[in-house]
Amino acid sequence: FKGGDTCEYLLSSGRFLGEKVWQPHSCMMHKYKNSEAKNCLIDKHVVFIGDSRIRQLFYSFIKLINPQVKEEGIKHGNIPFEDKSASIKVDFLWYPEVNGSMRQRIKSWTEGSVAKPHIIVVGAATWSIKIHNGSNEALAQYKINITSIAPLLEKLAISSDVYWVLQDPVYEDMLSESRKMITNEKIDAYNEAAVRILNSSSRNSRAKVKVFSVSKLIAQETIMKSADGLHLPESSRDTNAMILMNVYCNKIMKPIDGSCCQPQPPLTLIQKIAFCFFTLSIIGYLIISLIHRNNYRKNKSCTDLESGEEKKPAISTPNVSTLEMLLHCFCKLGLIMTYFYLCDRANLFMKENKFYTHSSFFIPIAYILVLGVFYTENTKETKVLNREQTDEWKGWMQLVILIYHISGASTFLPVYMHIRVLVAAYLFQTGYGHFSYFWIKGDFGVYRVCQVLFRLNFLVVVLCIVMDRPYQFYYFVPLVTVWFMIIYATLAVWPQIVQKKANGNCLWHFGLLLKLICLLTCIYFLSYSQGAFEKIFSFWPLSKCFELNGNVYEWWFRWKLDRYVVFHGMLFAFIYLALQKRQIISEGKGDPLFSNRVSNVLLFISIVSFLTYSIWASSCKNKTECNELHPSVSVVQILAFILIRNIPGYVRSVYSSFFAWFGKISLELFICQYHIWLAADTKGILVLIPGYPMFNVLVSTFIFVCVAHEISQITNDLAQIVVPKDNSTLLKRLLCIAGFFSGLHFFSAMQDQSRH
């Protein structure tokens, strides 16, 4: 690859995704709202100098600041614009030819007494072609004039942003008789002259006039839609204005989804410490490996010449092997985290915007469904929601969610609503799985809690450090973690009611139901009391975990969106286990769950309910209104799916090993996609192989899945070391973890202070 100057790419190259979405080469373009544009341009003076084409660009630019502006006023004259609320001045100066008048105006800004504009956009040529009937003498004079102006523009470029807009091609068939002399051949000659002359006299590398040539590429695709063959259609000039905004504002506003023109963020103190730690781990592992290798060579089995028997080497001590395993895990993790950083922080690889089409979402869905069905095997057990079935469920849901993210399908509301059900189904399984464990095992020990919390949060904590992101950024893990603690607290507080105790006295079942009712009441209260919710999570240290952009609103929104589904999962587990205990349901291999008549009725109701929800979700018109209903109705499709999947005995007795394999690493897949499959924190797509979209997806997906699988193994290995079963050792480890987070908080406070 060439150098990493994405500004050059933004100004000079790109392609259309579909008809209206412009994709710059190698980087992502942010779509600026008027509030963001105002914040960027506050106290700034912007000047557009040129002909009617530059006037078009001027209007598109000021509409980004104030969409209510009308294209009125003098056509062949100066047009001022001012936004007093943000102290922004944008002027259009009518200079349709590159001549002495334009030179005099530009020269006035180079003199000390006159305030220089912060942004200057210049361009003109078509009037020179028209007035002089496309003569060669006019082109020669144009070269002379632009040669005299170039040093002045370069002088201004030292302190201001100066852009020379190359002339767009025309659609010659549509030009009026008075414009027939404006040919694409002539325009190319004028553009070539401008590019050759500008910056040719520059002695200072900083003094560079930026050539805005991307407009030509956009015009080549869209000039056929022009009203007169000369002026661009509105959508094209709006794209040019947005590019101009990205070139200037990205380095100021630093939008996540605007990677063009953004410098690489400097390493934070915590990132430097993490880098040192992983480097030492790699060195430590290599040293230990060499020592073991040398010991092995020294103690290698050799034949005793007198007895003819082999001598066996001494066995390594367990302490050394534990240390080696620990260093081995951190060594692999360090290499993986380096890849994460290079993909999404180092501006090494290209990034592109997402672009949704129905085919980009539904064709991969069909493909993975065929693969999933192909890998069908018999289950080891035939219980409802057995381990293999839940892994399969997590697997296909995770694959659908991944395709949803990379295809940008969130813009299509029916797909969005169905994906919301899949996220709810994950949380339903959280409620079902943890409730079942505590209810059946009665194990409320610290070891179990620490194991679950470590497995859920280890990767996210490492990414928060390496990628410099807040904990709440990876919203799903905080969501699952909090719900696990709520389930634990609900069942662990006095009186502890478990299955063994409830079997002795049926009244305990009512006690548990009372606990669940209290939980539902608390959920209902917090969902309709944003103030109370925010007060709870605004207390230190919870605020450090759940704040995003200085407040906990995002966390409240995420929690509220699926507030009842974990409770539904707990309630379903309680009812199912009660029915199972009383042998009301039949879970034999090939047997229907209930009697044939009841099974058929329930199956019919489930299919109707499933389709009814899909029809409702597909007819959704407003995302806000549908999100309000979602928490209450998502359980309908989830329960319908469970019954369809489990009532017929032959369906319950098989599972897809393909989906189940992905289900075992579903959490790692969900988190890793943020940085090494998608890009710019999920806003774009990572491009490892430019120019070959399908091949790029295959390669990046293969690496992404392998990394997720490796991280899953690392997490499991470290969980055995960091969270031991022995209570006294576990207590020491917890004190070490507390010390680690205290140090992390200290360094984080130092970082915040240095930033301010």
From TrEMBL:
Membrane topology: Multi-pass membrane protein
Residue ranges of domain NXPE C-terminal in the record: 22-72
Superkingdom assignment: Eukaryota
Subcellular location, record wording: Membrane
Annotated ranges, domain Cas1p 10 TM acyl transferase: 253-734
Keyword Transmembrane helix in record: yes
GO CC, one annotated term: Golgi membrane
Keywords from the UniProt entry: Glycoprotein, Membrane, Transferase, Transmembrane, Transmembrane helix
Molecular function via GO: N-acetylneuraminate 9-O-acetyltransferase activity
Major subcellular location class: membrane
Keyword Transit peptide found: no
InterPro entries named among the record's database cross-references: Cas1_AcylTrans_dom, NXPE4_C
A GO biological process held by the record: carbohydrate metabolic process
One Pfam match: NXPE4_C
Transmembrane segments: 269-291, 325-343, 355-375, 396-417, 452-468, 474-494, 506-526, 561-579, 600-617, 659-679, 685-709, 730-750
Family membership: Belongs to the PC-esterase family. CASD1 subfamily.
Protein name in UniProt: CASD1 acetyltransferase
